[in-house]
Amino acid sequence: MFELQPFMFWLIATLTGLCAIATVISQNIVRSATWLLFTLAGTSGIFFLLGADFVGAIQLLIYVGGTMVLVVFGVMLTAQGPFINMKTSGAEWAISIVAGILLFSVLCFGTWGHFSAPQATAMDDPKDSHQAATLAQAMTGAGYGPIYKPVQRERIHYLLPFEIVSVHLLVVLIGAAYLARAKRRKGAAT
Amino acid sequence: MNPVEQLNLYLALGALLFVCGVVCMATKRNAIGVLIGVELVLNGANINFVAFSRFHPNFQVEGMIFALFVIVMAAGEAAVALAIVLNFYNNHTTVDVDTAEELKG
Amino acid sequence: MLDWLKDIWDNYGVYIIAVLAAKVLMFGFMMGNAIFSVWLERKVAGRIQDRLGPTRVGGKFGWLQTLADGMKLLVKEDSIPAAADQFLFRVGPYIALIGSFLAFVVLPFGDGVVAREMNIGLFFMLAVMSSEVFGIILIGYGSGSKWSLFGGMREAAQMISYEIPMAMCVLVPVIVSGSMNLGYVAKSQAGIWNWLVFHDPFTFCAFWIYFTCAMASCKRAPFDLAEAESELVAGFHTEYSGFRWLVIFMAEYGSMFAVSGIACLMFLGGWSIGIPWELTQVFETTLGLGPIGFLIGNVINVAVFIAKSWFLVFIMMWVRWTLPRLRIDQVMMMCLKYLIPISCVLMAGVSVWTLFVPYVVQQIIGWVICGVSVAALGYMVFQLVTWASATPGTAMPGMWRTTGLPGYQGAAKQS
Fold first, then answer.
1. Model confidence over B57-97: pLDDT tens digits?
2. Is residue C274 within 8 Å of C305, Cβ to Cβ?
3. If exposure means fewest CB atoms within 10 Å of the residue's CB, which of A185, B80, C148, C246 is most exposed?
């Protein structure tokens, strides 16, 4: 019996995994960033497949549109030659591949079958899912507006972490601007 | 395919991304390459969070909220890390992490 | 093997066909849109510069010119510079195209005429259109040319900055209507006085700022620093030719249509022509035509929506060929110093407005804004029509009469 959900999972997961491996083995830093872009897009595809539309769209907006552009910007600002290549010796490759395979098998053995999942929670149709509203309500602990679907359990508050994150972002904004600002050379004519 | 198998597969994918990120951090000599590895690790963790939000009723909202926090934190971390890398480049004209060995203590 | 295929066909055949049909339709629309928009751009540019634009190919108005140009581009040599990074050079245009194409997945053209209706459709559109910039950066970096690199860097800085006020301005109508579902927001604006642009002063300002930012994020003049031909040859696409160049421009015109579509759906009533009834329902139930009536209503809806969006695209062209290009520091300063604070104020203001201002006052202000805007538009159209009937002067062939126009001061004294 052919099922769509597992088929889509295998398709997206294979592509994502291959792109992640390509990120690691490519020697050129911008190519590596491009493969990372495909990995991130694949991850957002996995989120959409899991029914987490809002998180998937956030992933696309912030990671793909923001963070990756920042990373490539950093590459351009710190590049000395036209296309940078990173040299990694054969011994390092061998060690890291062995270590990676070992770590992967440990993680898989550790997780495989150890989490009982009583049932899959009902997946909303993206057409009328109230995910954004539910998340906003859980973030602020408030319910307001026409689209309002109460969370099943007691009310969940993440207001304090939410505020901390927003202050954190402000600090990051100022700090990054301070660190990266153009400095006058000492002794240079003002 | 029952939910337990599906959850296992999603966790395996998360583990794969995590391992790729760790190997990337270990092998790349370029500071921005290391940053790319960190992003991969965070994405592996995010897949786990969202998979639990789907397959574990107790984490239906928490999984997604934690994923959102991770994404926001990753954006902030990338901004600060790149600012530090730029500063480092201004002082040393390279972004090779092996040259950052002046602070000893 | 065959049983397996038959199983897939029985269970998912309709689904697969529907998906393929939607994709083919969207892709066809994107290509048709690019062909029409390029032709329109050349005609508009010609008229604004007192030329005729294309006239020959395909009969009277040169309307087949773009198709002929497309043929020429298809058979052109697809060269890759020796200094370029082959992989990035090849993959860049397609990333840009995918970003632009995905925006059409959730863009509703009519009542239910949408490939995938999503509750967070607006947010999804903004997200996928923001990934278009990465393709442009790869194009700029992978070309291995300094002009391309400059263009790519400028584009990155500009688009990342302008996304912020754009997203904040588009949140203003979301706050008013309470949904990010594009179809729902459009349907809630039946009747021209219900269009969200006329809802209150904040949405009215938000529309203009959104449109400015949309122009900047489509890298249209006066914000086309990424391809400033007076400084950077052709900017990020200097090294491109043939089919890949075509793909870059298909993506650009596609995203122009997409941002205009968002402006229509969120501010200008979507597919509404200004009457307070939904056309599909009018034809289906009021006139009693059933499903055929629904179809007729939707055909009209789609036509109205496309016409409205193309009108906004036309305004973008009008601005492009009228205003001079800004400098890159002016572009950045305008965004960071003015547009972001203004959009913050608009967002806070509209929240206060919807929560605390009495409903009657809201209604009255909305009516006033709507009336004044429609009257101003009507006056402009009237002036346009009466000016156009002025006869050419006789001093020089093709010279237009200038006496009597606003701003006219001199020449009459000489004679």
1. 777 777 888 898 999 888 888 888 888 888 888 777 777 77
2. no
3. A185
Residue ranges per domain, chain B? 3-93
What pTM does this model have?
A: 0.84
Are A147 and C144 an interchain contact pair (Cβ–Cβ within 8 Å)? no
The fold of the B3-93 domain, in CATH, is Helix Hairpins (1.10.287)
CA distance A115 to chain C (A): 31
Mutate to test the interface with A, among C86, C118, C148 (most CBs of A within 10 A): C118
Provide, as residue numbers in chain C, all residues whose Cβ is less than 8 Å from the Cβ of A129.
Answer: 119
pLDDT tens-digit series, residues C149-192:
888 888 888 888 888 899 899 989 998 888 888 888 888 888 78
The ipTM, to two decimals, is 0.87
Kindly report the three-state secondary structure assignment for every residue of chain C.
CHHHHHHHHHHHHHHHHHHHHHHHHHHHHHHHHHHHHHHHHHHHHHHHCCCCCCCCCCCCCCCCHHHHHHHHHHHCCCCCCCCCCHHHHHHHHHHHHHHHHHHCCCCCCECCECCCCCCCHHHHHHHHHHCHHHHHHHHHHHCCCHHHHHHHHHHHHHHHHHHHHHHHHHHHHHHHHCCCCHHHHHHCCCCHHHCHHHCCHHHHHHHHHHHHHHHHHCCCCCCCHHHCHHHHCCHHHCCCCHHHHHHHHHHHHHHHHHHHHHHHHHCCCCCCCCCCCCHHHHHHHHCCCCHHHHHHHHHHHHHHHHHHHHHHHHHHHHHHHHCCCCCHHHHHHHHHHHHHHHHHHHHHHHHHHHHHCCHHHHHHHHHHHHHHHHHHHHHHHHHHHHHHCCCECCCCCCCECCCCCCCCCCHHHCC
Tens digits of residue pLDDT in C325-345: 888 888 888 888 899 999 999
CA C393 from centroid of its chain's CA atoms? 38
Q: How many Cα atoms are found within 13 Å in the side-chain-facing hemisphere of C211?
A: 22
B contact residues 7-66, partner A, Cβ 8 Å cutoff: 7-13, 15-24, 26-33, 35-37, 39-40, 43, 46-47, 50-57, 60-62, 64-65
Q: Where are the domains of chain C?
A: 1-74, 76-355
CB proximity C86 to A under 8 Å: no
Whether C315 contacts C212, CB under 8 Å: no
Do B and C count as touching (3 or more CB pairs closer than 8 A)?
no
AA letter at C78: D
**Is B99 near chain A, with CB under 8 Å?**
no
> DSSP letters of A108-141?
HHHHTTTS----PPPPPPTTS--HHHHHHHHHHT
DSSP state of B99: G
The two tokens of residue C127 are 């997200």
Does residue C410 or residue C14 have the better pLDDT? C14
Q: Which listed CATH number (1.20.1250.20, 3.90.1170.50, 3.90.1200.10, 1.20.120.1200) goes with A1-85?
A: 1.20.120.1200
